[in-house]
Amino acid sequence: MELGGVDQLVKVAHLRLCYSRAFFLSAYPRESQEMVFDAHARAFAHLGGIPRRGIYDNMKTAIDAIFLGKERRYNRRFLAMCNHYLIEPTACTPASGWEKGQVENQVGTVRGWLFAPKLRFADLPALNAWLATRCTELAQRSHPDPPDRTVDELWQEERAQLQPMLPAFDGFHERICRVTSTALVHFERNRYSVECAYAGRTVALRAYATHIVIVADSVVVGEHERQFGRYKTA
């Protein structure tokens, strides 16, 4: 993948409706929990509703511990997201890709449809805008079962069964940090400024997929576009 003239590795979230096989893709610089939250919000907006049940791989951003059978200990924040959207999470059996609503097989297919030859975009938002458009366009293809109907036709039927849209989950990853004497907070080898009055104090840094919010005493004392390089100051 080439973004802004530089080769970069991106992670692509893939969410799919089982009945219609309509799907949504969203790319991120890394695979972290706040990216998972953002992908759900974007996917539900694109797909036109919220499913009542979600089938998930045993990803570390969602599951803290795997027990026998289907029993799992879900991450507290991931479970909060599911409760917000009223989704019943169901975990796949390890090494059982067929349980994920055909997503496992489609990953290779989508890679051929959309990611070959190498894509080139100015930045990540431009890539994600293109991916959303292509997901809509690909819904016009024939459905594998029944082949005389399109994915889009079945998608319209399935949308009527989805839960109505809700406000997006406040999907951040929080870390407690101490502000330096120069009114900066360090996070992932980058620095974010806060109001000078908070120098030397402890604050909560909330990392979202696209931005950083810094809170002290329930007041926002800094808000910045998230940096994904190193040693940058915002």
What does this structure look like?
By secondary structure, the protein is an alpha+beta fold. The chain has two domains: 158 residues, Nucleotidyltransferase, domain 5 (2-Layer Sandwich); 53 residues, no CATH class. Helix content is 26%, strand content 28%. It is built from five helices and 15 strands. Strands 10-13-14-15 form a four-stranded antiparallel β-sheet, with no helix packed on it. Strands 2-1-9 form a three-stranded mixed β-sheet. It has a two-stranded antiparallel ribbon with strand order 3-4. β14 and β15 form a beta hairpin. It is globular. The two termini are 26 Å apart.
Key structural traits:
234 residues; alpha+beta; Nucleotidyltransferase, domain 5; 2 domains; 4-stranded antiparallel β-sheet; 3-stranded mixed β-sheet; 5 helices; 15 strands; 28% strand; globular
Q: Assembly state here?
A: single chain
State Rg. Answer: 20 Å
Q: At the fourth CATH level, what is the homologous superfamily of the largest domain?
A: Ribonuclease H-like superfamily/Ribonuclease H
Largest sheet: 4 strands, antiparallel
Poorly predicted spans: none
Give helix and strand order, one letter per element, not per position: EEEEHEEEHEHEHHEEEEEE
Given the C-alpha coordinates, what overall shape results?
Answer: globular
Helix content: 25-40%
Mean of all residue-level pLDDT scores? 91
Number of strands: 15
CATH fold descriptor of the largest domain:
Nucleotidyltransferase, domain 5
Q: Give the amount of beta strand, in percent.
A: 25-35%
Which structural class is indicated by helix and strand composition? Answer: alpha+beta
Number of domain units: 2
Strand order in the sheet with the most strands: 10-13-14-15
